[in-house]
What does this fold into?
Amino acid sequence: MEQKGKLKNDLILVTVLLLVAVITFFAMKVYQKQTTNHAMVVVSVDGKEWGRYPLNKNCKKVISLSDGQYNELTIKDGYADMTDATCPDKICVHHKKISKNGETLVCLPHKVVVEIESEEESNVDGSTN
Amino acid sequence: MNRKSTTVAYLGMLTALAMILSYVESLIPMSVGIPGVKIGLANLVVMVALYTVGIKWAFALSMVRIILVGFTFGSMSSMMYSFAGGMLSFLVMVIAKKTGFFSVRGVSILGGVFHNVGQIALAICLVENVKLVFYFPVLLVSGTAAGVAIGILATMIIVRVKKVYRNDEDKMDGAK
It folds into this structure.
């Protein structure tokens, strides 16, 4: 009988966790939608800003780090994507390309973060997108 | 004295098992593209230890495993992430177990979720970027899913192991 009560508690736990996940997911989606305007691609290495590039201009940047390590960032058609890297896990390369405000490409071994940042928070004339 | 050597042998076996499971997990390609998404197979062993030999030894096992696996298959940074995830998830699992509110599955789910939370918290500190919170919903779901799977397995294993291995501490727990 005690076991049954615990099973119910487990189910409540799962439901609550999934609910929190769904809510935070949509909250972030809404937040991203409101703030994607004049987006910039900001590259930072070890917490320090390394460079920023407009998202609407195609370009290719090689972020070279110490001892021959590098990450290759490609900006194309309004998307930023990590196309090559020398890091061991290659998670950043496999990550899907990003385009919305607040989205990030992270390379943990190299401490490289690429993120989309809108120049201004959405304001009145932000609707001319 | 006999009891003590049994415990030592049992813990040695669990440590070896945890290492193997960590290795097996590193072989499974997980190209979801999101850092931190893991099955946490090794947590299975920690769960079994938690329910058979008690908190003290389970904690030792968890730490030894992280250090050994870090040196053999990982790097310094992967070890730090394991520590952050491992410590937090262990703490939460102990609390969840103590309250007696959840079954093995519930404890395992909390362990899985907080393992991810610990890792992402450390990542936010190390990379100095709060935007990593955007991974949170995905990690929450993956942690829950992994926790359910590990929890179901752990329930089955604990029942069987308890028939063979019985600890004094466990009897005391039962008396409460």
